[in-house]
Sequence to fold (84 residues):
Amino acid sequence: MARIARIVGGFTLIIAGIFMLVLPGPGILSILGGLALLSRDMVWAGRLADWAKQKFGKDAADGPDKPTAGPTNPPLNGETPDGA
Fold:
């Protein structure tokens, strides 16, 4: 019974995630959650989830981009950074 619930829940999350790609909501997160549920019972879902982790996980784990070099506060009203 638990296996059936996982499979139904996984497919429900994937379908809801596909709808949320065009509607408001966390579409990609829902799809990944559905794949995580299905990966316990279906090999293809586990492979797809592993591919998504390799493809998107590294970039997401790195955090935001490092700031570029430059002044922290841009000059106002045409002033030069040294105040001259």
